[in-house]
Amino acid sequence: MNIIACVKQVFDLQQVRIKKETREPIMENIPLTIGDIDKNALEEGVRLIEQHGGKVTVVSAGSEDLEETIKEGLAMGADEAVLVIDSSLDSAESAVSAVVLAKTVKKIGEFDLILLGEGSSDNYSGQVGPRMAEILDLPLVSFVKSLKVDGHRIQAVRSLDDCMEVVEVDMPAIVMVMSEINEARIPAVTQILKAGRKPKQVLSLDEIEVDPAEMETKVETLSNLAPEQDRKQVIFKEDADTAAADLFNALQSEGFIGR
Amino acid sequence: MGNILIFSENDRVAYSLLGKGLEIASEQGSTVGAAVLGANLKDRADEYVNQGAQRVYLPAQGKEMLESNDAAAYAEAIAQIAREFQATVILLGCTRQGKELAGRLAQKLEAGCINDVNGMVLREGQILCERYALGGATVMTQTVTASAAVISVMPGTYEAVSPTAPAGEIVEINLNLKPDKIQVMERQTKAADSVDIAEAEILVCVGMGLGDSGKMPMIEDLAGVLGAEIGSTKPVATDQKWVSEERLIGLSGKKCKPQLAICLGISGEIQFVVGIREAKTIVAVNTDENAPIFSTADYGIVGDLNQVVPKLTALIKS
Ligand SMILES: Cc1cc2nc3c(=O)[nH]c(=O)nc-3n(C[C@H](O)[C@H](O)[C@H](O)COP(=O)(O)OP(=O)(O)OC[C@H]3O[C@@H](n4cnc5c(N)ncnc54)[C@H](O)[C@@H]3O)c2cc1C
Ligand SMILES: Nc1ncnc2c1ncn2[C@@H]1O[C@H](COP(=O)(O)O)[C@@H](O)[C@H]1O
Q1: Which residues of A touch B111 (CB under 8 A)?
Q2: Which of B11, B131, B153, B193 has the most CB atoms in a 10 Å sphere around its CB?
Q3: What is the SS3 string spanning chain A?
């Protein structure tokens, strides 16, 4: 079985701080990593291969640092990487990423299953999967929390707002996973060392033949600021008795007791 | 701006979008239509008119294709209706189905798409949309620059406002749809926990610092004396299942606006904080004085919740 796992290079969001005066996020010197749910997508691919045999190709579109970032994905068990690198793909909008990824998948040619995350860590727009499904004319199963493969068919449990569905579809297909589908492995040092030697193909936008018209942005971002926060920040650090009493008094004076 | 088309598989969500759609349309001189798909079409169409839809589209043929939840068929149906109606703005409910539909529909219509929108304003003929970004750390204001826009709005963002003199027409439309590729083998309604934590005035929120489910009675006691509902972080609801998923607060759960939120054993990762940021007062109890939750708290206790919670409960009781 040939599996493609699409993962996005993102800033490690845990490390993003907010500039107090301007409420802007500080993005300088923040390490890059693979999106959280994307790791679950890759993990699911690796597990399926361990069970059924075959190959997992990790696919990503991004800017220059991608070759370094993707090592983590190879260390997690992907057999090879296909990367599209272009400076314009740094923080590209989902519509553009979907076109680039669809073209890349076409170029790879042989695949049974494309795995993606439910949303990217930074954008969380959930557009790339549905847009790829349209471009490639493939069935898409979204919000998947468990996945089985049986011959050329997949069975998935999808979690919608008010119901759970068990669905089946023939491959090739696209599956968008939720984070609860598995716990992504943290690669061992030996895996990380081996990752550098796994096959890696780097493609340019020309090589995957994207039409410049398809790269046009469709959405403009006007501002991106942290919401205003005005909290009292009174911290009680004494022993539990005193602290609980202080908190009780505070809650009482705010009118929350005996409502 | 052309016409505005509204769709959600959840009628209540659709009604709330009708109100907002009419407000935008009245400033733009455009018409607001709604697509009604699925079962029980005729009765629902009448109600959409009551709710202010100026034109309601019902599928005449091809509706048997729309009995599954496969967004592929829905996207094709709504694309055909949007073209017929000359809609350039399509407002969808950002349920999970709605979110999948949004991307597919936008691709078909070569539209720009903004999902998870929790606020819209019209400025100089452009709809400015607000949504969380960077995991919830920031709020982005975005607008679609392509000639068509697909915008999916978080349920609960707007209230339905039924107009005083509704007048709309119901139009049947022939849809040309392909059969679904996905087969639904089984469908199970999620056991609804009768609470809606988004409506709660006071929330007691628990995180992984609780340690194990055996301590839930202690939390229930505190919630009891405060008249509060219990909410939780994601790992507590989805991994540990100490509480049901309806109690999940945050980016992937409910966004709540209580008067008071008490956060116990919660680190305060941004994906959680977005769900309580609009609380009037936030209290945090955490053993780690560097836990990020303290930076969004009005009152904090650096301490062990196992000691603090019973004491606080006892004080409130007396
Ligand atoms: C795309 C995405 C979406 C997400 N959506 C959500 C979401 O909607 N909601 C959500 O909650 N999370 C969400 N998360 C996960 C989020 O990033 C955090 O992992 C999660 O909120 C952490 O939960 P926690 O605070 O319960 O656990 P932890 O981070 O493990 O924190 C436990 C805390 O308890 C404290 N503690 C330990 N023992 C005690 C004690 N005895 N007394 C007091 N304090 C104690 C510790 O100091 C620590 O701060 C999402 C993540 C991603 C990537
Ligand atoms: N640039 C990219 N390269 C590879 N995969 C991506 C990229 N952007 C998004 N994805 C995949 O698409 C999913 C949804 O992304 P989004 O639509 O941005 O929320 C992610 O979880 C990834 O699996």
Answers
A1: 218
A2: B153
A3: CEEEEECCEEECHHHCEECCCCCCEECCCCCEEECHHHHHHHHHHHHHHHHHCCEEEEEEEECCCHHHHCHHHHHCCCCEEEEEECHHHCCCCHHHHHHHHHHHHHHHCCCCEEEEECCCCCCCCCCHHHHHHHHHCCCEEEEEEEEEEECCEEEEEEECCCEEEEEEEECCEEEEECHHHCCCCCCCHHHHHHHCCCCEEEECCCCCCCCHHHHCCCEEEEEEECCCCCCCCEEECCCHHHHHHHHHHHHHHCCCCCC
